[in-house]
Specification:
Elements: H1 4-16, H2 19-26, H3 30-44, E1 49-52, E2 55-58, H4 60-89, E3 93-98, H5 102-117, E4 121-126, H6 129-137, E5 143-149, E6 160-169, E7 171-175, E8 195-198, H7 205-216, E9 222-226, H8 230-238, E10 244-246, E11 257-260, E12 268-276, H9 282-300
Parallel strand pairs: 3-4, 3-5, 8-9
Antiparallel strand pairs: 1-2, 5-12, 6-12, 7-10, 7-11
Amino acid sequence: MMTLQQFRVLLAIREHGSLTQAAEALEYGVPTVTHHLRALEAHLRVRLVERDRRGARLTPLGAAFAAEIAPVLTRIERAERSVADQRDAGVVTLRVGTFSSLGARLMPAAIAQLQQRTSVRVEVVEAEPTEVLRLLRGGEVHAGLIYDVSDDLALEVPDVERTTLLSEPYRVMVAKHGPLGDREEVDFAELAETAWVCSRNPDEASDRVLRRVYHSLGRPVREVMRTDDLTMIHGLVAEGLGCALTTAAAVDADFDVVLRPAVQDLGERRVSFVTRRGPVPPAVHWLEGILRRLAAERVAR
């Protein structure tokens, strides 16, 4: 019966040209290397290695056999590492819910860094914050990125752990070449007839901010469209069809839009990493640490 140790011994002899050096490379004793080599030759009933005063070299049959087993051993070792990675990470596939805009900027870099540490597969589900929380609580994702308004308890859920990654002030996205594009700041009191691009879910943070501000002025929010498609939002605003409430991280520079602060207090968008309370796979903690570093670097720019 052939073993992986025998294969490793033969390949080490091929590489180092000496039983002694092969033993050192494998951290075996020379007798152990000799034992595995003789057992392999006995199984195959052929001499695989020739030895003389210059060292050891593979016979033609030994070289041919080594060429066949080398890629097999490489695949086996890769499979061993993958299983070890998944064992240590506590999960085979890490599923993460996230929103677009900032989520699209943080998650790819975070996944790249995570995969430098582990071979665990990552699946990303894009959804609005309320849906991410539903998926998380239902066990359909292991973790998520969400956003809400700082000091707003709308998305506070008792069985969910939250780590704030960063906060950004809300701003008004307007057409760069429109009537509001040249203003230093905008006053909602003068925007009674302005239409807004709103979220599909009226409970999302930006919609709650809009309703709060307009309610304080005794006016309703006029909607031009409800959509969560960032490209569509930018396009509508750039064409002067409406304004949108967003943050700097969500702005696409390819569109003719600009952000303007408001006279009224719009608050800040808080971006958080969320998990279920209780034990979670180690890979979740690794991802959280990476995201915290990436968010801190973004704030420091």
